[in-house]
């Protein structure tokens, strides 16, 4: 829940894998409640990111999937306390965010 000391922090990622890593670190390293973190495709289309990653890439036993919906970036948003903003920006950077900002 937001208060006057809280702003929404939004970061965008090229892959769902990077966005998921950021969420995992926000929960484990910053102590945020997973239910307070939101992921969504940027834009109107369903998307798994802009580039293949994770289960969509080739492995020793499987070829690269060609049906992944690569239609745009993934946005991660959260309403942290003001004292958590700096650690969140560091987590977003470490996970490969292409843009992060408070609004």
What's the order of the H and E elements?
EHEEHE
Q: Please tell me the total number of domains.
A: 1
Helical content stands at: 25-40%
By secondary-structure content and strand pairing, the structural class works out as alpha+beta
**Uncertain residue ranges:** none
Shape: globular
Question: Could you tell me the mean pLDDT?
Answer: 79
- Biggest pleated sheet: 4 strands, antiparallel
Estimated radius of gyration = 15 Å
Instruction: Report the end-to-end length measured between terminal Cα atoms.
Output: 15 Å
Q: Could you tell me the strand content as a percent range?
A: 15-25%
Beta strand count: 4
The helix count comes to 2
- Strand order within the widest sheet? 2-3-1-4
